[in-house]
Structure formats: structure tokens, C-alpha cells
Amino acid sequence: MVSQIVELLKNEIPLEQETVVMSEDSVNGLVLVDIINGFCTVGAGNLAPTEPNSQISEMINESARLARLFCEKNLPVMAFLDSHHPNKPEDPYPPHCIIGSDESNLVPALRWLENEPNVTMRRKDCFDGFLGSIEEDGSNVFVDWVKKNKIKTLVVVGVCTDICVLDFVCSTMSAKNLGLLKPLEKVVVYSNACATFDFPLDVARNTKGALAHPQEFMHHVGLYMAKERGAKIASQVLFGATEKA
Predict the structure, then answer these.
(1) Which stretch of DSSP H or E encloses residue 3?
(2) What CATH number does residue 207 fall under?
(3) 9, 126, 129, 141: most buried, per Cβ within 10 A?
């Protein structure tokens, strides 16, 4: 019944995806959002999955594959790591990914990124990596990274599709439209390398302050909203001599 309802809802807001071919003649950047133990490794924390999850597993595998490809080409990669200070809540969620804990570290399949010279790591203590990149002096690590590397196409992957990924994409699209991220031209969300969590209605009803969160549908909604903001939603990301319009 649940899957039928999800399909009905998805039919009301259909999402058209595309194959994105990135030009080898310009700089392409990759952003990995919160692919850390606290959100992806079974039993790793309050917001980690309680059992193996196929959507999360595919997201990790595809993100790792794409990251390898970017590193082999020596292209710029930025990894956001959700890292919170103790006793600083992030409502409506329970404490998670505390700085210094293994929850806030990359999953094992991506830990190798820490030793790659083309990778920039950024710990953030909020949903939105764009806002989480702001320094005390007002500068922005992400904005500087885009400008320094002259990134024209940005590929975004990670978790959660409808929360941290979407928040980051919305801020990035707004900044791009305001001319704050030149020479950035295109933001691509690779759907198979994104994932969100599952929190069924029957469980939410018995959990104080909790909101129901059907995984498959909220993943769809996150991608749909990102496309509404102007991002391209890719079912496949390829490198080629010429870039597909």
C-alpha cells in the first residue's frame, strides 16, 4: 500500500532526469555532502541507519566511484562533514555527529579522500554547507574554492537528499544567480549518489516530536525541489570531449 501511494504521489510531480556529459576542456568540481558514519554506517549514532539500507549503500558506492574518477583526473573535490559542538542542538534532531567522534568522519569507503591533495575537507555545524563555509571574517571557503579552481560545472552528491544536499544546492544556486560564484555555470545533482533516511509513519506517531519521513518519496521530493531551483538532475554523469547542452 505504501509503495502504491508513493508512486501516485510521484506521478503528480514527475521528475525528468538526464545524462550529463561534462567537458574535459573545462574544470569540473565535485562536492560530497555528509557521507559520514553518523548518517550512513549502521548503528553509528542517533541518526545512523539501524539496518543495511540499499539506497544508502548505492549512494556510498556511486559517490566513491565518482570521487575516484575526479581524483584520477586531479579535479577539485570538496567534502562537507557534519560536525556539531556538544550541547548545541540542531532541532528537530537529537544530538548527532559530535566533533571529535567517529560519527563525524567519512565512511570507510571514502576515508582515503583524506590523503588526496586535490580534496578540501570542511567540517560544518549546520545543515547548509554553503552557510557552514562562512568564516569569522566573513569569507566563504566554498566560494573561494569555486573561484580559485575556476569551476564551471559542479556535481553534488551525498545525504540527505531533501535536507543538507537540498539546502546546499538552494544556497549555491542563489549565489550563482547573483553572480557570486563566477565562473560557475551549472550545478548537477547526481541522483544515484544521493540518499535520505526512512522513518515510517507508524514509528513517528510513537516518537515524541518526530516527523514521518518515507525514504523513497522524500528522496524524490529533494531532487524535484533541487530541479525547481535550477539544478540539473542527472541519472548518469559522464566525462566527454564535448559537453551536452
Answers:
(1) helix 2-12
(2) 3.40.50.850
(3) 129
Predicted TM-score of the model (pTM): 0.93
SS (H, E, C) 55-67: HHHHHHHHHHHHH
CB atoms within 10 A of CB 154: 25
pLDDT tens-digit map of 82-129: 999 988 888 878 889 999 999 999 999 999 999 999 999 999 999 999
Domain extent, residue 187, equals 4-8+28-235
Q: Grid coordinates 545524462 are at which residue?
A: 19
H/E element, 192? strand 186-195
Count Cβ atoms below 10 Å from residue 32 Cβ, excluding itself: 29
The strands making up 232-240's β-sheet, listed across from edge to edge, are: 18-23, 232-240, 186-195, 151-159, 27-33, 77-82, 119-124
**Cα–Cα dist 80/132, whole Å:** 9
Number of separate domains in the chain = 1
Q: Is residue 243 part of a domain?
A: no
Instruction: Judge whether 50 lies within some domain.
Output: yes
Residues with pLDDT less than 70, the chain: 1-2, 199-210, 241-245
Contact in structure between 157 and 20 (CB atoms under 8 Å): no
